[in-house]
């Protein structure tokens, strides 16, 4: 952790402590039965942290040491920094679950949000009017952010959210981008299993200066009461206690452990995030410096478009649009929006007494209602700017526009009518079709080639899950040896049939991935656990789904390799079996897809088939489980877990040539030594051929059969031909 973060952390905690001291007395007055003992002093109490987070004595000592160093202005080591960020910061600004439109705030600083009848009723009335902006036809994003009701059939969100599916700026020439629609789901809670999406029928406004947009939606019910937007001078709201309601998403640029601590590894659902309004500060937004109001709630990317709601006054005081880790969050003051007649005339429900006036930013509007912004706005195809690096001091001007968009489809030209919106559909996570009768699975067949090709064996039998009398868990056309401690495969063994008749045994049937999986057009594949294996030895889909994009869900046994058979059902069952989490390895930074969109391993089997003039292969593969593999802090179905992430993978391909076997060994290696594991997005994988002897030295946990060792082609002309065809080199090195 960079030392600059230590200084930023001290400043952050100092500000929160001062704010807590300033507001403590007023909170006590409004909290009724809540007494002084319910509030921490201006110095953090380790005892209170231990009690609330059930810390071990060792963790408590680390927290105590961290607090003492912070107070003394000393640098923190990595362990102390993690404890401070993952325990102390979330302890001040929690994220509260919303379930069935209600919540329980049990944190002493915010308990009155539940115990004070007036505050609790105010927040519960606001919750149904906040929803998730759904993007059913977007090529990469299921949702874009948050929106809330501000008038009759009228939603408010961020400009950068609306621009995910809209072209144009201003009011008159706005259109949905080609093929894209939007909707809003007012539930999407942590416990909700169903969703009701209301269509966005029209984009009413994309403001040319503030990061604000208005959307027209139909079908609002009586529970979706429009918020009242405050017109009070923004400076007068500083220190107000707010409830930010929105849909926080994981941000891969920030500390994963801290985010897991705050959000418990659950993202993209409705949360209540309390905090305080902070003084205004400047930030660059769409090419110009704006004077934004600030707050210190624990908001994340999916909070874009959230309302900063003052439950005491029952009014929205600001529209959240950006944030900087360990510093502050930025929001558009609603009082500034009330100074724009176009927004008032659009039907936004401002309280009486709008300030009026002619703010200088009104010049952003042109005569024909289109933008005349001094500096051009970011183009739709540009990636979001990176967050600031290095130390950020209080009052410093920082620049960070915070959309969660990465790629955008080209939009409809100006003046072209909007396509007729279609009924919104939402991507669902669906387990691919698979055989529910596990007794039918025969697993890897060592006689598949007509010559025995035995699978590898674990060097130590007790390191892998026992299945029956052996160590291989059988599936359709492959088997897995599952490492108990690492909770991923030690190795896999599969039978590959590349023949066209085996790949498509029933003419006229579709054999694409969606059809074989039994998935709808908008469905996404959900990995599933093996009911035959103790859950303690498996990493559930939740770990891979909530790893926040740090890893690919990597098939060790390739889906395409084993999706073959004598019938459609056999192909489908084999395809589905590859989505068991026992076959999934967290694969870092493009292992599963290269920069060209091609499977990094995919050409190996095809090339060996070509060299051996064969349609059938046996393939052994797996990760290199090294003691020094980096640790990722993730979440399983029980809670936080620390999992080592492999930095190398191996594969051995065995073919038949006449009456003999030929084996070819490969290693895929990535150097992650100089980058945090969450940010390993630019490192390059390097592919090498390797001898079986070297592969065994690299993999002391695995032993290959004598027949596979004897068939090694690494030093022969066949191996040289494969290397030439693939453009890879030979290596005897064992380093990562």
How would you sum up this structure, described in words?
- Helix content is 22%, strand content 24%.
- The longest helix is centred in the N-terminal third of the chain and has 28 residues, at 3-30.
- The two termini are 22 Å apart.
- Strands 19-20-21-25-28-29-30-32 form an eight-stranded mixed sheet. A six-stranded antiparallel β-barrel has the order 10-11-12-15-14-13.
- It is elongated and about 90 Å long.
- Helix 1 packs parallel to helix 4, helix 3 (57-72) packs across helix 4 (78-92) and helix 4 runs parallel beside helix 8 (256-263).
- Residues 23-44, 370-427, 546-550, 589-599 and 672-683 have low confidence and may be disordered.
- The protein has 736 residues and is of the alpha+beta class.
- It has 19 helices and 32 strands.
- The chain folds into three domains: 1-92, no CATH class; 94-418, Beta Barrel (Thrombin, subunit H); 429-730, Extracellular Endonuclease, Chain A, CATH 3.40.570.
Helix-strand layout with pairing:
Layout: H1 3-30, H2 46-53, H3 57-72, H4 78-92, E1 96-97, H5 112-115, H6 117-126, E2 130-134, E3 143-151, E4 154-157, H7 159-162, E5 166-167, E6 175-176, E7 183-185, E8 197-206, E9 213-217, E10 241-246, H8 256-263, E11 271-285, E12 288-295, E13 307-310, E14 315-324, E15 328-333, H9 334-337, H10 341-345, E16 398-399, E17 429-430, E18 457-458, E19 473-475, E20 478-482, E21 489-497, H11 500-503, H12 513-517, E22 524-525, H13 541-545, E23 551-555, H14 559-562, H15 568-577, E24 584-588, H16 602-612, E25 616-623, E26 631-635, E27 640-644, E28 648-657, E29 660-670, E30 685-690, H17 692-698, E31 702-703, H18 706-710, H19 717-726, E32 729-730
Helix pairs in contact: 1-4, 2-3, 3-4, 4-8, 16-19
């Amino acid at each position: 952790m960079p030392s600059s973060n230590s200084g930023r952390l001290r400043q952050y905690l100092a500000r929160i402590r001062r704010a807590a001291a300033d507001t403590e007395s007023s909170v006590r007055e409004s909290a009724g039965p809540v007494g002084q003992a319910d509030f921490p002093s201006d110095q953090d109490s380790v005892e209170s942290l231990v009690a609330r987070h059930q810390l071990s004595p060792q963790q408590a000592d680390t927290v105590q040491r961290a607090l003492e160093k912070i107070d003394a202005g000393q640098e923190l080591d990595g362990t102390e920094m993690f404890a401070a960020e993952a325990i102390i910061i979330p302890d001040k600004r929690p994220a509260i679950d919303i379930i069935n439109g209600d919540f329980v705030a049990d944190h002493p600083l915010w308990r009155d949000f539940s115990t004070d009848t007036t505050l609790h009723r105010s927040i519960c009335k606001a919750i149904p009017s906040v929803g998730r902006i759904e993007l059913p036809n977007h090529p990469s994003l299921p949702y874009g952010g948050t929106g809330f009701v501000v008038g009759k059939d009228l939603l408010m969100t961020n400009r950068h959210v609306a621009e995910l599916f809209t072209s144009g700026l201003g009011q008159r020439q706005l259109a949905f981008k080609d093929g894209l629609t939007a909707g809003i789901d007012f539930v999407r809670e942590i416990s909700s299993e169903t969703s009701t999406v209301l269509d966005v029928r029209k984009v009413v406004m994309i403001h040319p200066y503030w990061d604000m947009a208005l959307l027209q939606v139909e079908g609002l019910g009586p529970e979706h009461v429009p918020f009242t937007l405050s017109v009070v001078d923004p400076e007068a709201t500083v220190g107000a206690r707010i409830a930010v309601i929105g849909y926080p998403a994981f941000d891969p640029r920030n500390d994963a452990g801290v985010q897991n601590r705050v959000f418990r590894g659950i993202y993209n659902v409705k949360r209540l995030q309390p905090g305080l309004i902070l003084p205004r500060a400047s930030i660059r937004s769409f090419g110009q410096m704006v004077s934004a109001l600030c707050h210190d709630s624990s908001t994340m990317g999916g909070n874009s478009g959230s309302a900063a709601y003052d439950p005491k006054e029952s009014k929205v005081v600001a529209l959240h649009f950006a944030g900087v880790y360990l510093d502050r969050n930025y929001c558009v003051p609603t009082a500034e929006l009330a100074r724009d007649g176009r927004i008032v005339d659009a039907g936004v429900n401002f309280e009486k007494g709008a300030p009026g006036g002619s703010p200088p930013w009104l010049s952003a509007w042109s005569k024909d209602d289109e933008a005349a912004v001094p500096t051009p706005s970011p183009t739709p195809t540009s990636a979001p700017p990176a967050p600031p690096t290095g130390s950020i001091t209080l009052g410093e001007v920082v620049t960070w526009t915070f959309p969660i968009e990465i790629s955008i489809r080209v939009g409809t030209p100006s003046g072209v009518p909007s396509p007729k919106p279609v009924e919104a559909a939402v991507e669902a996570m669906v387990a691919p079709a698979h055989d529910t009768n596990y007794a039918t699975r025969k697993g890897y067949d060592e006689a598949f080639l007509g010559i025995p090709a035995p699978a590898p064996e674990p060097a130590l039998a007790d390191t892998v899950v026992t299945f029956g009398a052996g160590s291989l868990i059988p599936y359709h056309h492959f088997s897995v040896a599952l490492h108990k401690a690492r909770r991923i495969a030690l190795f896999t063994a599969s039978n590959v049939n590349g023949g066209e008749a085996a790949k498509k045994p029933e003419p006229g049937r579709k054999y694409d991935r969606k059809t074989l999986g039994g998935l709808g057009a908008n469905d996404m594949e959900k990995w599933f656990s093996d009911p035959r294996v103790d859950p303690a030895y498996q990493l559930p889909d939740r770990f891979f789904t909530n790893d926040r994009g740090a890893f690919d869900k990597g098939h060790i046994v390739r889906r395409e390799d084993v999706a073959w058979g004598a019938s459609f059902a056999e192909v489908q069952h084999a395809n589905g079996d590859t989505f068991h989490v026992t076959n999934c390895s967290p694969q870092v930074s493009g292992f599963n897809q290269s920069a060209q969109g091609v499977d990094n391993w995919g050409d190996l089997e095809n090339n060996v088939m070509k060299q051996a003039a064969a349609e059938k292969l046996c393939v052994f593969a797996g990760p290199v489980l090294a003691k020094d593999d980096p640790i990722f802090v993730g979440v399983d179905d029980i809670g936080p877990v620390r999992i080592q992430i492999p930095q190398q993978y191996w594969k051995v391909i065995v073919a038949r040539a006449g009456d003999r076997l030929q084996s070819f060994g490969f290693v895929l290696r990535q150097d992650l030594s100089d980058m945090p594991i969450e940010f390993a997005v630019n490192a390059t994988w390097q592919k090498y051929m390797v001898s079986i002897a070297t592969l065994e030295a690299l993999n002391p946990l695995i032993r290959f059969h004598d027949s596979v060792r004897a068939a090694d082609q690494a030093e022969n002309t066949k191996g040289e031909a494969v290397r030439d065809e693939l453009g890879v080199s030979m290596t005897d090195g064992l380093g990562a």
